[in-house]
Amino acid sequence: PSQELVALGLANAVGGLCSAYPIAGSFSRSAVNDATGAATNLAGGLTAALVLLTLTCLTSWFYFLPKFCLAAIVITSVASLVDFAEARYLLRVKRSDFGLWLAAFVGTLVLGVERGIVLAVVSSLLLIIVESARPQVAVLWYAASSSTPDFVNVKLRDGRLVEGVLVARLGASMYFANVSFVRERLAALLALDKQLPPIEYLVLEMTACVTVDSAAVHSLFLFRRELEERGIVLVFAAVGNRVDRVLRRAGFVEAAGEDHFQHSVLAAVRFCLRQREQSRRSLPNGGDVAVVAQSSIAVEAAGYPAYPAYDV
């Protein structure tokens, strides 16, 4: 491929000195050449000789030949350049990627190569914006039966919800385009099932959130204030260094409290349980994660349903 580009460049450089027409390659002609079994540069010379012979001696024979006959030759050869197997793979794996492939394919056929490529690039950028503007917000379940008890985004048979504590995972960075969506999803989680005991703590797992902008910080201030008015404490888990620096510069860490930022979900839940038991003064200080399983089992035994799966 690089040799062809060099050849085209040199041909245009020399042709420009002689007022010649611009010289360019054609995918369709290359496909026809490849379909006939061409393997060396000699095929190009033979093709040029045949074209010269046709123009000088055979034009009268081809004058009344319908153009669609030539189009059929080109279409048959160009079809080999389209990877339909890849299209079937994209359709099976992810339909949005197949939509991009289809946009590039149809755009190239209808609008031309340049405009088709531009359409594919613009469609890709729009898809990135749409997906980042609607990040996944998922409930994390407490898996007590695993070898290392943890909170996971898996629908387990023995998955439990901690009484009074809701753990949610944010699946992307927060910026001006998705902060409203994130707040709406979190609010929907808090109000999803009125039969459950009231939520006292919301733990937001931030592993996938690698950056936040000023609009996101402002939204977090407002969201935290709204939760406080409802008697819900906002706690963060696994906040990255970059996000932590931005939140500290904005004064959010100082406003929320240093202890409201924990290194893991388990540590955050332990903190919530200690705070709850201290406020109730019914159990000694220093509750452990064992209370998680006990409280969740007590919730289910009392007749409350398990927290419904909510993964968007």
From TrEMBL:
It comes from Calcidiscus leptoporus. GO terms for cellular component: membrane. It is a multi-pass membrane protein. The chain crosses the membrane at residues 6-27, 39-64, 98-130. One of its GO terms (biological process) is transmembrane transport. This is STAS domain-containing protein. Residues 163-272 form the STAS domain. It comes from the Eukaryota. Pfam families: STAS, Sulfate_transp. PANTHER family: SULFATE TRANSPORTER. Keywords: Membrane, Transmembrane, Transmembrane helix. The lineage of its organism: Eukaryota, Haptista, Haptophyta, Prymnesiophyceae, Coccolithales. The keyword Electron transport does not apply. The keyword Transmembrane applies. Gene3D superfamilies: STAS domain. It is found in: Membrane.
